[in-house]
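From the shared-data thread, chain only:
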Amino acid sequence: MEPQSSALPDGFDVVVVAASAGGVRALQAVVPALPAAFPAPVLVVQHRRPATPDLLTALLRVRSRLPVRPATDGVLRPGVTVLPAQQSARLSGDGTVTLAPAAPNRSTDDLLVSAAAAFGPRVLAVVLTGRLDDGAAGVRAVRRAGGRVLVQDPEEAESPGMPSAALATGCVEHALPLSCIAPALVAYTMAPGAAELLAVPVAPWARLGAVSGASA
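Structure, as C-alpha cells:
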C-alpha cells in the first residue's frame, strides 16, 4: 500500500514514545527535557511488570516541566500520559483514549497502529531502547498513514532490538542519540517549518505493508 499524501501537518495530535528494556533511564532523559509549552499530548508506553503504585509515572513526574499522569479512559490531554503496564490503548479521531490489554510484547504496535488509524499524518512516533521487535509493525502503520517516525540510535541504546527492528522497516526518518530526541521533538512540533525541513522520503525498499496479526 502506498503512503498517504506527503503533505505535512500543521502540527501533531499525538506524540507516542515507546520503550522497553532500559526504557526508564531513556524516558527520564527525554521527558524532563520537553518544555512546559510543548504543544502535543505525549503518550508513553513501556514494557514492564505491573506494580502498585506505578513507579514510572512517579519517576517521570519528578523533573518534568509537563504534567505527568497515569492513563485512564477518557479524552487525551496535554502533557505526558503513561500507559499502565501490560496495556495499550485504542485512540479515536476525537481524541478519546480507551485502555485495552496488550498482547505480550506488542503494546507499542497496538498503540501505534491505533494512533495511525485515528490521526493519520498527525502522529509523531519515537522508538527508544528495548528488546525484541515491538514497534516495527506500528511504525509501518504510522508511515503508511503519512506520520513521522524517529528512533534512538541502536548503537547507543541499552537494548538495541526495538530501534533496530524499526530501522529495518525503512520507515524511520531519523536515528538519533538519546540526547537529541527531546530537541528533535521540540523542533518537529514547535519550530515553524522544521517538520518539513526534517522530512525524509520513505525508502523505496521500505516494508509498508500491514503485518499479519497486527491490530487495526
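Strands lie at 14-19, 42-46, 68-70, 74-75, 80-82, 87-91, 96-101, 123-127, 148-152, 174-176.
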